[in-house]
Amino acid sequence: MEAGSDDIQALIGLLARLPGLGPRSARRIVLQLIRKRGGQMAQLATLIERVAMNSRECLSCGNITDRDICAICTDPARANGEICVVQDVADLWALERGGAFRGRYHVLGGTLSALDEIGPEDLRIPELIDRITRDSMTEVILALNATVEGQTTAHYIADALDQTAVTITGLAQGVPIGGELDYLDDGTISAALRARRRI
Amino acid sequence: MEAGSDDIQALIGLLARLPGLGPRSARRIVLQLIRKRGGQMAQLATLIERVAMNSRECLSCGNITDRDICAICTDPARANGEICVVQDVADLWALERGGAFRGRYHVLGGTLSALDEIGPEDLRIPELIDRITRDSMTEVILALNATVEGQTTAHYIADALDQTAVTITGLAQGVPIGGELDYLDDGTISAALRARRRI
């Protein structure tokens, strides 16, 4: 028998299915919430409800927003000519934290996969090509993961844009800032060596 | 700038403060919740609200329950003479998962600590001694952590019960089931050797 009420067990079960959590961490979270319930739990319940009710995909770029078109797409201070293509909203957030990019984004929502039957239409790729043509973008930055799936998707998009005038770029590959060579995989070291620059 | 609405940022901040979570895992959880929002988020919000509203400490043992006295304390099938003393509700749940103990529990809610000024009155120890005397318990099992704080607390309780007729026991120390000697710390190996048994 598991102890605790049915509601507690149901809550633990629900939390345990979230990414990065398991039964043990879900139990610890629930106990902590019950212990500090003054405000914290009510606040959490309210926020989850509000986010569930208000969050949707930006109709233009696929970012998560509480409006039809997200704050990045409507920001007049951002450059219109550059569009950065990412796999997921998490990647968009990661790039925004870096703060180095001041153009627009396009979230694909995944990568091409013959195995999982995910084709270009499932990935907002037609919308991307539409946007690039309609808004006369000058540069497309394919900021996709350096994995086989990410690079396959990047090549597909580059091929599809072959007939347009847009410049297609990708993120540089090399040694991460603060990275120690001894801890890097061989592929990264070789890529960094091939792309070496005069200093 | 962090992307996402203010509500999303607030939700990530709240989740990131839960045990075992950080900003990165909180972001992943929120994105997953938004992605699968059909039902999952509403269900989570409802459950958190219900648990927050209904959960309280059992007036007798300190377990978490939705009634005044918890299901374990009121279960007529459990032995009345044996009481198992644990530090936290998480420990009670762990023992219940094992299913080997069929008596009653008493949750201390922490360990004695001179440094943090936690004395016996802060720990439901007077209530424990009351229960043992009133319900004429025959055995107290001190299932406290094998840490300095846990063992200090165990010794304090044993001293306090010195004048009563109750038998005081503690959990056996030794090699965990499936444990490999080579991976165990020296203290555990020495304890297992000292407590060796004829087979």
From TrEMBL, chains A, B:
Gene expressing this chain: recR
Q: Which protein is depicted?
A: Recombination protein RecR
User: Which parts of this protein are zinc fingers (C4-type)?
Assistant: 58-73
Task: State the source organism's domain of life.
Answer: Bacteria
Does this UniProt record's set of keywords contain Ubl conjugation?
no
Spell out the PROSITE patterns in the cross-references: TOPRIM
Which family does this protein fall into?
A: Belongs to the RecR family.
Q: Which SMART domains match?
A: TOPRIM (SM00493)
The record's annotation in Gene3D superfamilies points to: 3.30.60.80, 3.40.1360.10, 6.10.250.240, RecR Domain 1
Q: Where is the Toprim domain?
A: 81-176
Q: Report the coiled-coil segments.
A: none
Any Pfam family from its record, for instance, is RecR_ZnF
Organism for this UniProt entry: Paracoccus alcaliphilus
Q: Which InterPro entries match?
A: DNA_Rcmb_RecR (IPR000093), Rcmb_RecR (IPR023627), Rcmb_RecR_Znf (IPR015967), TOPRIM_dom (IPR006171), TOPRIM_RecR (IPR034137)
> Biological process (GO) annotations?
DNA recombination; DNA repair
Query: Which keywords label this protein?
Result: DNA damage, DNA recombination, DNA repair, Metal-binding, Zinc, Zinc-finger
